[in-house]
Amino acid sequence: MLATDAAGNVSATTNGNITIDLALPAIPYGGLATESDTGTAGDNITNADLPTFSGTAEPNITVILTLNGKRYNVPVNNDGTWRFTLPAGDKLNDGSYDFTLQGQNTAGTTSDAFKGSITIDTTPPDAAVGKLTADTDTGIAGDNITSVSTPTFTGTTDPGATIIFTINSKTYEFQADSSGVWRFTLPTEDALPDDTYIYTVQAKDVAGNASTPTSGSLTIDSTSPAPTVGALTEDSDTGDKGDNVTRDKTPTFTGTTEPGATIILTLNKETYTFQAGKDGRWRFTLPAANALDDGIYQYTVQAKDIAGNTSSLSTGWLTIDATPPVLSLEDNSDTGTADDDITSINTPTFTGTSEANATITLNIDSKVFTTAADSAGKWTITLDQPLNDGTYEYTLTAKDAAGNENTLNERLTIDTQPPAEPTLGSTSDGVDSAVTLQGTVEANQDIQVKVTVNGTEYPASVDNDSGDWHVSVPQSIILSGENQYTLTATDPAGNSAVASGTFTGTSPTENPVNKSSGADEMILLSEATLHSVSVEEEYYAL
After folding, report:
1. 114 and 33 in one domain?
2. Does 208 lie in the same domain as 238?
3. Residue 223, pLDDT above cutoff 70
4. C-alpha span between 157 and 154 (Å, rounded)
5. 249 in the Ramachandran plot: left (φ > 0), alpha (ψ -120 to 50) or beta?
6. Cβ count within 10 A of residue 147
7. H or E element in which residue 494 lies
8. Residue 85 belongs to a domain with what CATH number?
9. Does a structural domain hold residue 381?
10. Where are the extended beta strands (E) located within 231-385?
């Protein structure tokens, strides 16, 4: 090779070799790499949104991958293999994508394109909820109770998805059809004995996405039960369960027998006929027109199958009790004034009467106490913890065996503190040959005062507003010399305070006064807590 410039100068000669390559590279081949080809191998459907591609081409050329509007240059190894993972910034959304592969050699010659497509699917399939088919759901539709020991299940999910069904510790796999509908019958060799089973269903789509497993309960009952005495349903069996005592005047009975059998129920001289269900279960509610009065009733149940065979007669007893129990409260701990609900006992006893064997519940001071009435209806509840002084609202409830209730709402005042000691004051008059004593107690406390002089008790009159009290003591009671007295103050709760002392009585000749004045004479009370009391025509010093 020579070079000549504008002046005609010629360069030295340079020698070299060139290669002419006019041949097109072979068309490369490739698709999803094995680890990215989730789901069914080779279907180019994946749940990887940054998939890896791999393939083959002429060694040492470049494979040009064109995908989603972007071009990627991938070097080919010496052995003719290539591999490429989509970069994080080019994550693919769910959908189908076409791609091309071209080989380009070092001369820049580009092969024809290999064309392919992939589908990105990162969405799990719909939950594959399974249920019994109509032909194997022999009980009440949808209750998953069947007499078929090899039942058939059906459901829907994504088209072509694989269903993973597990029951009785065995797992079965099968495909949904092109519409997403699936159907599976338990194999004969795996027939289920009578029992209740939990089963799970999961769907895995062609991209390998798996749904959340769903579970259900299945009961196999292939044995026709013998007729049983119809029992009250749970909602009709008020009170204690299973005792056939109810306050429901139109109770509901239920039982089991041969599927489809006719049930004949006789009660209170009425006969009722109805059908058992496909699973043999039956349920019957007494019509309102035939509501039962309180009382004890005998009833019979008989089953007749479609062939006309009848079962033996079963007999039961039913008690209707719609009357609430009587509930009364006696004043067992009502100290002080009767029936005022005020007591000085801080662990009071509640007692009363109700229906025999009724349950009695006392709710007081946020505590609950329960007892049972005896066969005569008598009951007693004693608090096991003392109550503080104060007023309490409480509730008593009686509940009989049929569930009838009666409630009393009452109030109770606890007062364990005695009143202040009463005091003896004075008076200046005597009326009708009587000595009048007076004094004070606490005002507005409904205090009762009793005065005892020389062993004889006299109730005093008390002014509740002021606390002042007075009492007239016959003159004949007063002794010449020492006289004993006691003052007793009692509050409504029965708490008492006592004050006592003595006074000395003297005759008029020992303490003369001017009788001619016509004024009442004075009895002088010498003790510090006492003043004077007057007695007509006589004088006494205390």
Report:
1. yes
2. no
3. no
4. 10
5. alpha
6. 20
7. none
8. 2.60.40.10
9. yes
10. 231-232, 245-246, 252-256, 262-267, 270-275, 281-285, 295-304, 314-320, 327-330, 342-343, 349-354, 359-364, 367-372, 378-382
- In sequence order, the 6+-apart residues with CB closer than 8 A to the CB of 406 are 324, 325, 326, 327, 354, 397, 398
Domain that holds residue 365: 327-414
| Rounded Cα gap, residues 293 and 270, in angstroms | 14
Q: Is the Cβ–Cβ distance between 91 and 50 less than 8 Å?
A: yes
Whether residue 217 contacts residue 196, with contact meaning beta carbons closer than 8 Å, is answered with yes
Bridge partners of residue 81, in order along the sequence: 56
Give me the number of domains the chain comprises: 5
- pTM for this structure? 0.41
Per-residue confidence (pLDDT) for residue 139, from 0 to 100 = 58
Tokens 């509940």 correspond to 399
Report in angstroms the alpha-carbon separations of 231 from 71, 158, 380.
78, 47, 35
User: Quick one: tokens of 42?
Assistant: 């080779």
Assign 3-class secondary structure to 62-121.
EEEEEECCEEEEEECCCCCEEEEECCHHHCCCCEEEEEEEEEECCCCCECCCEEEEEEEC
Instruction: Please write the tens of the pLDDT for every residue from 332-372.
Output: 677 777 778 888 889 988 988 988 999 999 999 999 999 99
